[in-house]
Structure formats: structure tokens, C-alpha cells
Write a structure and sequence with these properties.
- It is a single chain.
- By secondary structure, the protein is of the alpha/beta class.
- Helix content is about 40%, strand content about 15%.
- An eight-stranded mixed beta sheet has the order 6-3-7-2-8-1-10-9, sandwiched between helices. The chain has a two-stranded antiparallel ribbon with strand order 4-5.
- The N and C termini lie far apart (about 55 Å).
Length: about 425
């Protein structure tokens, strides 16, 4: 089984990244912060986790408020960095681990967490600001990132308890992942700060210390606090500290705190901590009471159901160019552009020779086998003037009239 070997709590203030990129690690104003990260970087270098699962929040870089998810999981071979208005940071993109991400998704949804899947998105400073202080990146990062975005911007937010339970579900998912991968979990955000309104600049060092003690010794006490409690005690934007609870939940019961550093320079209290679980057992790796492994219960047996194809995150990732091409047909301008020159449009979409031939032939069942989602095939059918009933007949390998005779009301067409 895979193992969670440790947890890291870290602030994700964008100025951490700015100071790093400008080479200011030895400046008197920044040296205390950078020194605080060195023991954690040394631990990572020694223990060499295969991946970091990072709980962070997107600061309206990838998501806008017309579609702002409560929880979002990145599934990609590579995660680029977002341009947040001042250009890209001089850092390479970060490797993903689609197989692990997809397994986490299966278990999280089975555990009744409603997860948005991001297969093509960029990571903002909430994830990558402190990353080069933890991991070297020349010539490349030493492991993969599994990013999990948590909404702490747009009320209503998930509760502190919900974030803690998310971490517990992540623990169960990791421990049921095949292989001997070594995983570290990272909770980001905080500590006390407020960066809007007349209360801008608010800090509370006493609360920060209490929080760091409780996250180590009694995280359940933190789960009972309301968002208002966090905001009153630590400032409006400090509510993001609830993301540390996701990290802590993934560590299980008691932990050893190996390192803690705290630095308040201007408006945000910054901290970095390191924990190891006291037990590395498989307490979360238990099949459900009916014998199914985590993440497998809801669709067990479907692989052998003839003529049925489950569309999941793995299929979606593999068939992304094809489905994206079909999805464009919902845009009136794109329909005109594609209809003017189908061949050029398919080439621009980077479709393979097999996919192009199936689209030319309107080979509906072939496209299903290729990973097309049926409800995107409907867009192609509408453009082509093909009724759904004709699609159904072709997918069954029947002539249209033959298919209609199998329906209860053959004349309902």
C-alpha cells in the first residue's frame, strides 16, 4: 500500500515567491523566513516522497465566481503555473500523477465529497509560492504534485470539520492505492492576517501560537470552530487556516512535531511546520462492510457489462482532444468556423487519424469506443442533422427501421 510519511503546514503568501525569485533569501528582512524552511527541505530531501498532496486555495486565478468549486482536484500529467498579473514565475511546470489523482477521486466521491475535476488548469501562488523553498527545481522537481483546491474565498465555505474529514478520506484513499508510494501532505494558508477593509493589517500572535499547538495536539477542537471564530481571532483571510485541517486529518491520530518556525514581518503571520504520524498502519485501508475496496464499490461489476462504457476521469483525460473538439460545437461562431473546413478544424484540434475518419463517417459506436462522451456526440449529431434514434440504431448495429421495430411505439419518431 502507499503510505503518508509526513505532513507540512505552510503559509502561501505571494511575497514568499517574490522574495525567492528575486534572490532575497539572505536579506535581513527575509532571512528568518527562509531559514525556517531549511529543516523541512532537509527532511524532504532525506525521505524523498514520491508526491506531495497539496491543499491550497485558488485566488481567482483559475476559477472565477461564476463557477467556483468547493473542492477541486487536479488530474494531469503536468501542472503549469498561473500568470496572476505580473507574468509567469521562472519555475518549471510541476509533474502530476494522474493514476493516483484518479484513485483519490474515486474514493473521495464514494465518501460523499462532491469534487470538481480539473484536467487542464494552472496553479496559482496558493500552491507554488513556498514550493521552491521545500523542493529543488533544477533541472526539474523531484516528485509529483496532487493539487486539491479548497474554497476559502466565496461564502459559503466548507466547514473546518469538513476539511478535516476530507483529509481523513484522503488518508483512506492513499492507503488503498496499489504500490509502495511515499506521500507527504501539505496544508497551506495563513496564519493570522487581513488584507481588505479598515481592519487590514490585523494580526494575532497569541491565536497563531494556540492554533499551532491545537493542530498538533487537538485538531478536533479546531474542527468545532466556526468561520466567524477564525475571522474574529485571526482576521478575515486567516479563515484559510482551515486548509491545515485537511493536512492534519490525513495524518491520522497523534503526530510528532519535528519543526516549527514562525515569522511576522508585515501583514501576514507566516509559519512552516513539519509532522510525522506516530503510526504508519493501514487503519484507513479497510474494505467497506460489504467487501468492496475503497473507491470500487459503486461500479463493481460494470467492466463485464456488455455494450456499456463507464466514462470516468481516466477516459476523459485520454480522450480530451476529441471531446473538446465536439464541445466546441456548442459555440455558434465555432460551428461556422468548423463547418467551413472540417479537415482544418480537426487538424487544429490535434485529432488522430482514427478519430478524424470516425467523425467523417459519423461512426457513432466507433467514437464511443474511442472515448467520446455521448452527450458531446449529440452536438455532432445536431450539426449533422442526425436524430438520436438513428444514432441509437447505428450503435446497436441495426438498420433504422429494424431498430424502431424493437421500440414499444415504433411510430414515435
Amino acid at each position: 500500500m502507499a503510505t503518508i510519511i509526513g505532513g507540512i503546514g505552510t503559509s502561501h503568501v505571494p511575497t514568499i515567491g517574490v522574495a525567492y525569485d528575486k534572490g532575497r533569501s539572505n536579506d535581513p528582512a527575509w532571512a528568518p523566513l527562509f531559514e525556517g524552511y531549511k529543516p523541512v527541505a532537509a527532511w524532504l530531501a532525506e525521505h524523498k516522497p514520491d508526491a506531495l498532496i497539496v491543499f491550497y486555495n485558488d485566488h481567482a486565478s483559475q476559477f472565477f465566481f461564476d463557477r467556483y468549486p468547493t473542492f477541486a482536484l487536479g488530474i494531469a500529467d503536468e501542472h503549469p503555473l498561473a500568470d496572476e498579473g505580473s507574468g509567469l514565475r521562472p519555475l518549471p511546470s510541476i509533474k502530476g500523477w494522474p493514476e493516483l489523482s484518479s484513485h483519490l477521486l474515486d474514493v473521495l466521491v464514494e465518501d460523499e465529497f462532491d469534487i470538481t475535476v480539473i484536467q487542464d488548469g494552472a496553479l496559482d501562488h496558493g500552491c507554488h509560492s513556498p514550493l521552491p523553498l521545500l523542493w529543488p527545481h533544477v533541472p526539474d522537481w523531484p516528485g509529483a504534485i496532487i493539487p486539491i483546491a479548497i474554497n476559502v474565498l466565496h461564502f459559503p465555505l466548507p466547514t473546518a470539520n469538513r476539511c478535516y474529514r476530507l483529509g481523513q478520506s484522503i488518508r483512506r484513499a492513499v492507503q488503498s492505492f496499489a504500490g509502495d508510494a511515499r506521500i507527504a501532505v501539505v496544508g497551506t494558508g495563513g496564519l493570522s492576517h487581513q488584507v481588505h477593509g479598515e481592519r487590514t493589517g490585523f494580526n494575532n500572535e497569541g491565536w497563531d501560537t494556540e492554533f499551532l499547538d491545537l493542530i498538533r495536539d487537538d485538531p478536533e477542537a479546531l474542527t468545532r470552530l466556526r468561520h466567524a471564530d477564525y475571522i474574529v481571532r485571526g482576521g478575515a483571510e486567516s479563515v484559510e487556516m482551515i486548509m491545515w485541517l485537511a493536512m492534519r486529518g490525513a495524518l491520522g491520530g497523534a503526530v510528532h512535531e519535528l519543526h516549527r518556525a514562525y515569522y511576522l514581518a508585515t501583514t501576514t503571520a507566516m509559519a512552516v511546520t513539519l509532522y510525522e504520524p506516530t503510526e504508519f498502519g493501514d487503519d484507513a485501508d479497510q474494505p467497506s462492510g460489504d467487501g468492496y475496496e475503497p473507491g470500487a464499490r459503486e461500479r463493481a461489476g460494470l467492466d463485464g457489462l456488455e455494450g456499456t462504457y463507464v466514462f470516468d476521469s481516466r477516459v476523459a483525460r485520454a480522450s480530451m482532444p476529441l471531446n473538446r473538439f465536439l464541445w466546441q460545437l456548442t459555440d455558434a461562431n465555432k460551428r461556422v468556423e468548423i463547418g467551413t473546413d472540417w479537415e482544418a478544424a480537426m487538424e487544429s484540434a490535434d485529432l488522430g487519424a482514427t478519430e478524424r475518419e470516425m467523425i467523417r463517417a459519423r461512426d457513432w459506436i466507433g467514437l464511443i469506443h474511442q472515448g467520446a462522451n455521448f452527450f458531446l456526440l449529440e452536438k455532432l449529431a445536431r450539426v449533422s442533422g442526425v436524430p438520436n434514434l438513428e444514432m441509437y440504431a447505428q450503435m446497436r448495429g441495426e438498420e433504422f427501421e429494424e431498430f424502431m421495430q424493437t421500440r414499444r411505439v415504433p411510430d414515435a419518431r
